[in-house]
Amino acid sequence: MCGIVGYVGEKSAEQVVVEGLRRLEYRGYDSAGVALVHEGAIVGDKRAGKLANLDKALAETPLPATTTGIGHTRWATHGAPNDVNAHPHRGPESRVAVVHNGIIENFVALRKELEQDGHTMVSETDTEVTAHLLERAVLGGADLTSAMQQLCSRLDGAFTLVAVDAADPARVVAARRNSPLVVGRGEGENFVASDVAAFIEHTRDAVELGQDQVVTITADDITVTDFDGSPSKGLEYHVDWDLSAAEKDGFDWFMRKEIFEQPRAVRDSLLGRHDDNGRLQLDELRMSESELRNVDKIVITACGTAFYAGLVAKYAIEHWTRIPCEVELAHEFRYRDPILTRDTLVVAISQSGETADTLMAIRHAREQRSKVLAICNTNGSTIPRESDAVIYTHAGPEIGVASTKGFMTQLIACYLLGLYLAQVRDTKYAEEIATVVDELQSMPENIQQMLDNADQVYDLARSLEGARSVLFLGRHAGFPVALEGALKLKELAYIHAEGFAAGELKHGPIALIEQDMPVFCIVPPPGRDFLHDKMISGIQEIRARGARTIVVAEEGDDAVEPYADVLIRIPRSSTLLQPLAAVVPLQLFACELATVKGHDVDQPRNLAKSVTVE
Ligand code: M6R
Fold it and tell me: In the prediction, which pLDDT does 81 show?
């Protein structure tokens, strides 16, 4: 939610900041703006709409050349996405400019206080009060760093703030609480941003900031303090991916590129996690075997696509370990007073590691003394930092707002966790675990096979351009796949889509079926507890009522043929691992249908990549 960038160095600040915003636009695209320090004044521009609008404005009315600046791309929370509410916001005398990501929860009281002191606010945002307060401190004699420290001690809520002072062109100051901020360490230049993608083309050396820290960057120095001004330190790290990973590589959309990266992402996520005999080693886990042996319940918490990965995980973890496993939406979790003990393992799944709902859920769990394990794709993000243990997925940066390779690698991490628990607790024989590990190893090939068949799915998507509603049915581990297929379609194609457990259909949803309604049916492999046959009965029932059945079934499953209007073949696999291949055509379908409908696939309306507000 909102992307922010700050730069001090020798290059054109406008160029660095705008390019940084381009790489952060996935975080929000309601409006964008920049503020630069030039000859003792703040200059800048800000425009409603996508970054392209700002680009156009800057091309028509260029800003002067400067080497210090900040920028913002917005996902609106307070106030409509118009020019006035766009960031940066300035103090009344234009001495400081501020960009903000998050929500200042006490802004109403602060605004009232400022208005009583004669300040006039021009926007409806919660952010503008920070610019006024900051400027008041600077005009009172504080330098920008001390002014930021003072400001932060007055704010409630979640925020990353980045500010410049017209009279102090050599520094940019930033602060964070419950919202992402990372520093890029360059040579003769430094950066701050919501995400390393903003400065990856300039440096891969980064500094991760802790909670409630203020950072001051100049061209040659990075200084970190706590909000009270006491010296502190960030954690230095090297980013293990480069600019090419943050570019589209000839694909029309990041999302499509990310779908096609999945075989590589799965391979990377398995790398180094087992020996030649299939024995798992999760060295990074930071939890001892005895702690894992004591776990008597697992609660998986997450949102959106990550939640669906958790639903798949439940089937695998319970089957392999016999540990009861609950899966709960993070925003519901803490409000129902969940039963958590020291022996509960809470698993938080988050691609971004910044989802506020998930973060609040793990804080609640830790307050109850449960151990928290994060499954996360973003090094240095808040959720793994605040967890007791972490399994990093190795998807590489996911930029498309719709999660694809993020989901895929979350599944891999969940399978690894389940198998590792089974190994530690001896609930499966070593050979059984090795067999599943072998099967996981073959998954990149299976996924590639699905990608090689993309044209079939694209043709289908084109033929369904006019569909008003699409249903998705699955059973067992295929049920969350159905939910995920429906979510992808909702968020990208903006058409009604629902996922159902196929067995539930006759309890109500079958009433939705009408002539020619497309229904995706994810068929479990034959042979498991009659699931396959029951699924086929379900398909017959909807077909008899006019549904157009799009059947996703494994190779050699001839029984489905008479009931499939369209048949998409997936490679054979066990029921538990089937989601890895089965989800791919659903991703391709949503991507292509949104494309033919003329939608922006990477930046769907009303959404943002990481939801850093509750
Ligand atoms: O970064 P996270 O994995 O915590 O994000 C969770 C959801 O917001 C995310 O999966 C969302 O549902 C995606 N847009 C789905 O494609």
Answer: 86
pLDDT of residue 575: 95
Q: Which of 2, 152, 303, 376 is catalytic?
A: 2
Asked if 609 is an active-site residue, the reply is: yes
Exposure string for 262-287, b = 16+ CB within 10 A, e = fewer: bbbbbbbbbeebbeeebebebeebeb
Nearest to 266 by CA among 389, 82, 405, 367: 405
Which ranges of 6-141 does DSSP label H, i.e. alpha helix?
A: 13-24, 51-60, 107-116, 128-139
> Is the backbone peptide bond immediately before 88 cis, with ω within 30 degrees of 0?
yes
Q: Tell me which H or E stretch contains 75.
A: none
Query: Could you tell me how many residues make up the chain?
Result: 614
Kindly name the residue from 46, 257, 371, 609 that is annotated as catalytic.
609
Q: Which of 355, 362, 591 to mutate to test the pocket of ligand 1 (most atoms within 8 A of CB)?
A: 355
Beta strand ranges found along 75-124 (DSSP E):
89-90, 96-104
Which residue's entry shows tokens 């066990």? 574
User: Among this protein's residues, is 2 annotated catalytic?
Assistant: yes
The Cα–Cα gap between 18 and 41 comes to 19
Pocket test for ligand 1, best of 351, 382, 601 (most atoms within 8 A of CB): 351
Contact (Cβ atoms closer than 8 angstroms) between residue 322 and residue 378: no
Instruction: Using the structure block, give the residue that is written with the tokens 């920049």.
Output: 34
pLDDT of residue 283: 77
Q: Three-state SS for 491?
A: helix
Pair of tokens at residue 560 = 């489905």
Sign of CA dihedral 55, 57, 59, 61: negative
Phi, psi of 107 (to 5 degrees): -70, -30
Residue 568's SS3 state is strand
pLDDT < 70 regions, the chain:
528-529
Rounded to the nearest whole angstrom, what is the distance from the C-alpha of residue 70 to the centroid of ligand 1?
27
Tell me the CA–centroid distance for residue 355 and ligand 1, in Å: 8
Pull the structure tokens for residue 573.
């696999």
Domains, in order of start, for the chain: 3-245 (3.60.20.10), 251-444 (3.40.50.10490), 454-596 (3.40.50.10490)
User: Which amino acid belongs to residue 212?
Assistant: D
Query: C-alpha 341: how far from its chain's center?
Result: 29
- Of 305, 300, 329, 303, the residue nearest 315 (C-alpha): 300
